[in-house]
Design a protein that fits this description.
The protein has 592 residues and is mainly α. It contains 26 helices and 2 strands. Helices cover 64% and strands 1% of the residues. Strands 1-2 form a two-stranded parallel sheet. Helix 15 packs antiparallel against helix 16 and helix 16 runs antiparallel to helix 17. It is elongated, with a radius of gyration of 33 Å. One of its GO terms (cellular component) is Fanconi anaemia nuclear complex. It comes from Crocodylus porosus (Saltwater crocodile). Keywords: TPR repeat.
Length: 592
């Protein structure tokens, strides 16, 4: 039996040596994966054929190891069993079976009680057992030895520390994560893996409220691997947290330049080791943490941050570049995952329109908004009826309201998407109205404001149980607040254009409707006051003035910031409210 698998092993070793010496970087990487699978199959074959005479029994791998170590004399097969245990540890670590490795190491070391690690932050028996494991020498000069068992043990220790540290980070146990990741940074690994460890350290210390320490770790990651663009992206996030706008913009500009450049050619020589840390630590969550942003995401952040910093001209150019990518660029430049910093495409167009409007580029604003109108027209229903009666009005303001017990939810995802399309198109008409007003074309501006208001009339929010619709809508449908704000701005905008045309009574009616929509709005009240005075309705104007004075005394310092109560998803639907009047809405690096 021994000759059977020994011959297979020798053949695999010779094949690996040839592949590692003659292949290119990509070919060598493929050879590593192929030979690793082959060695895994050989290990399984060994376990079945020569497991102390227990082949054929229905035993798990853990039970098989326990039986072999109990029945086979320890001194006779001590070295082969430990070397086989190293390979078993590799397989189990790659499968994230840390408990199985711990149990095997206890058996191999003869330990009966759990071993506690001195690492602060909790027990770490696995690392202590790996550190204390005395793997017998395997004759590193033998032609049958691909990789020293002791070297593989060191790789196991580093990979286990890295993996456990990341798991603690993911679980929110930051002190334990920090200790384990710091241990992993002292282990045996490539520069690429060490850079990834430093990125995790940076993420951990940032969450611990230590942004300066996080920046130091991220700089170390970049020094180790200049192609590790995730570190640059994380550094921009830390600068944003610190409020250092110039440093953040510089980091984003460097990141976009690197992402937009052709990727460097892979090295011709790969590592000669068959077992590597990067092959063992690859959970999906780690891939998510180390994900590089796409060029379109970084371009969007550049545009948004420039707009927030008052660098409107730069913001406008960045937005136009981004729109060109979204319209004509390859699809892989538009990320579709949930962690993308890029919002929905119509919202990007509306933000771009906001920047162009601030620059006084009114015709460009009109053109950008026309793109939103054309893309959403086929998706906009003639009428949208949403029943809110099944939702608990006591949940007003909650980001996740719940339906009342015994009643089904009537707000289906399709209806919410239809509502968003209506809001996007209405916001585009609102922007176009403001742009035509900027071009001194009051008639065309009134036309666009009217189209905006007509779109909003397509939405019917109903409640059959007598609850106040505003309270129910606030809890069950946050987008209802956006609808009301768009209606308010359209009415005020149309009223001001009626004043330009001398149609004072039409203007008065619009301002009155605006105050009905939002009774506490100061802009609508101010316009109404001036219009009443202009129409020589002095007593009404005086009464309104006294009411405004009384209300302002009661609510001093409590004036609502436009856009502050908008739901995160819809905050950018209304750039004319959130951006053009009060500056852009602050958003994070990922979509909520």
């Amino acid at each position: 039996m021994e000759r059977l698998w020994a011959g297979d092993c020798a053949q695999l070793v010779r094949s690996w040596r040839v592949a590692s010496l003659s292949g290119s970087g990509r070919a060598t990487k493929q050879a590593v994966l192929q030979h690793r699978r082959a060695f895994e199959k050989l290990l399984q074959k060994i376990q079945v054929l020569e497991a102390g005479g227990v082949s054929g029994q229905d035993l798990s791998t853990e039970e098989l190891w326990q039986k072999v170590l109990q029945e086979v004399p320890a001194e006779e097969l001590r070295a082969p069993l430990h070397q086989l245990g190293v390979l078993q540890g590799v397989l189990w670590l790659a499968a994230n079976r840390l408990g199985s490795i711990t149990g095997l190491l206890r058996l191999l070391s003869g330990a009966k009680e759990p071993v506690l690690s001195p690492c602060p932050g909790g027990e770490n028996e696995l690392l202590a057992l790996l550190r204390a494991w005395q793997v017998p020498a395997d004759g590193g000069t033998s032609p049958l030895v691909v990789q020293s068992a002791r070297d593989v043990r060191e790789i196991l220790w580093t990979a286990a520390a890295f993996l456990q540290g990341f798991q603690e980070l993911e679980a929110g146990n930051l002190p334990a994560a920090l200790s384990l990741l710091q241990l992993a940074a002292t282990g045996f690994c490539s520069k690429r893996v060490l850079a990834q460890i430093y990125i995790c350290l940076g993420c951990c210390t940032r969450q611990m409220g230590k942004p300066q320490t996080a920046l130091q770790h991220l700089k170390q990651a970049l020094q180790l691997d200049f192609q590790c663009l995730t570190a640059l992206s994380q550094a921009a996030m830390v600068y944003h947290q610190l409020g250092e706008m110039d440093a953040e913009l510089e980091a984003l500009a460097l990141l976009h330049e690197a992402l937009d450049s052709p990727p460097p050619e892979a090295g011709s020589a790969a590592s000669g080791s068959l077992v590597q840390t990067e092959l063992l630590v690859h959970p999906l969550a780690l891939v998510s943490l180390l994900r590089q942003p796409s060029p379109s995401e970084v371009k969007y952040l550049l545009a948004q941050r420039c707009l927030q910093a008052g660098r409107t001209a730069e913001a406008g150019e960045h937005y136009l570049d981004l729109l060109a990518v979204l319209q004509e660029g390859p699809r892989h430049q538009v990320p579709l995952h949930s962690q993308s910093a890029l919002p929905r495409i119509p919202e990007v167009f509306l933000e771009a329109a906001c920047a162009l409007e601030q620059l006084g580029r009114h015709r460009d604003t009109i053109a950008v908004c026309e793109e939103v109108v054309s893309r959403t027209s086929d998706l906009t229903p003639e009428m949208l009826r949403i029943d809110l009666s099944s939702w608990d009005g006591a949940e007003a303001g909650s980001s996740s309201p719940r339906p009342r017990s015994g009643l089904s939810c009537d707000i289906l995802p399709q209806k919410k998407e239809s509502l968003r399309c209506i809001l996007w198109r209405a916001a585009a008409y609102l922007h176009q109205g403001r742009a035509w007003a900027g071009l001194a074309d009051s008639k065309e501006a009134i036309t666009q404001f009217t189209r905006c208001l007509n779109d909003l009339l397509r939405v019917q929010l109903v409640s059959a149980d007598g609850l106040h619709i505003g309270e129910v809508a606030a809890g069950a449908l946050p987008e209802a607040a956006v609808l009301q704000k768009i209606r308010l701005l359209a009415l005020v905008g149309r009223g001001t254009q009626f004043l330009e045309l001398g149609r004072d009574r039409d203007a008065l009616m619009n301002f009155q409707y605006a105050l009905q929509v939002s009774p506490g709005d100061l802009a609508a009240a101010s316009h109404l006051l001036q219009t009443l005075w202009k129409l020589d309705r002095r007593q009404e104007a005086a009464a309104l003035w006294q009411k405004l004075q009384a209300d302002s005394g009661q609510t001093e310092g409590q004036q609502e910031v436009p856009g502050s109560e908008l739901p995160p998803l819809m905050a950018t639907v209304l750039p004319s409210q959130c951006c053009c009047l009060q500056g852009p809405v602050t958003s994070s690096y990922s979509v909520v």
